[in-house]
Amino acid sequence: MAPSFSTDDMAGKTKGTSVIFNAEQHLAYKPPPKVLYMEDLGHNPTELSSLASTEPFPLLSHDAVLQHRREIFNKDVLDNCMHHTRPGSVQIRGMVPRYAPFIHEFWNSPEVLKIISDNAGVDLVPAMDYETSHTNVQLGPGGLDAVRKTPVEPPAATKEAIAEFEREKPRIRAVTDQSKPIIEWHRDSHPFVCVVMLSDAQHMVGGETELKKADGPTVKVKAPQMGSAVILQGRYITHTAAPAANMPERITIVTSFRPKDPTLLDETTNANIRNKSHLTELYYQWTTYRLDVLAQRAHIAAKELREKYEQNVNAYDPDGKKGLCRVETVDVKAIEAWVDDQMKYMRETLYEMRPLD
């Protein structure tokens, strides 16, 4: 059974049975001490940003960590949103907003979006509700049954785990062992991700994120501590996660982001997520988001034409009257290129809903 809980055991106002997000109570943000740029990995900056990855930085307060865990490991979520597609882990996703109102409010709050956008170097919004707080749970000896017994309060390291941590600390760890991967080397489906640790990682061995440089070698970004986050331009960097060797659990959440500006590059895909999603919901969210972007682009293009037309009328018509303007407003070649781009965008939208292999 999932851990039962009452909102009475957590400070803060509640709405019904849900905790209401409060920035002062639920954020513990401090800027990252260091960032990696795309150039540091041998890559050119993308059209969106020069950021490759931040180092871990505090983001969630302890209260926010507990409330994420409460909502994620709720029985309804585990019954409806848990997927087992890899031998060493399970994924819990799609719980927002139906089963996880606090999580939805947290990741859509202006305070959190500003933190994410400021660090990414571009204004971002959550990619879709389905990609809010995707949860990766490393399976231990108890397997799937143990996931349903995950406590709200993260378990601390045992004396044996602390001793192992002290022994392993001096070692320089090589490339992640992929014989028993938590997740294979991959690129994300979405431009940016924010990865947050929901487990006590104070004495965790492993758990780092490993990034491939353009010329082959790898760089490890140390694992975040509980409540801390890493922001990664994961669509454009091949990366993996090292397993944790000595802790009773390793639980991370990943929220994916795309550009807020509809005119910016949007190469989002469904490549890594279709086999672990309820496609009826995923494809609804996917199609409406893409159509919304298309509509915004069309609105911007129409607005620019109206402004150019107004300028032409004022500049070339003696009476400044609209109608029968004899100066070219529409650059047909430019409109043709714009239409081609939008048709490509919608063809890609359709392709990302192709039948599963």
TrEMBL record:
Source species, domain of life = Eukaryota
Q: Which PANTHER family match?
A: FE2OG DIOXYGENASE DOMAIN-CONTAINING PROTEIN, YALI0B19030P
Q: What is this protein called?
A: Fe2OG dioxygenase domain-containing protein
Organism, scientific name: Penicillium steckii
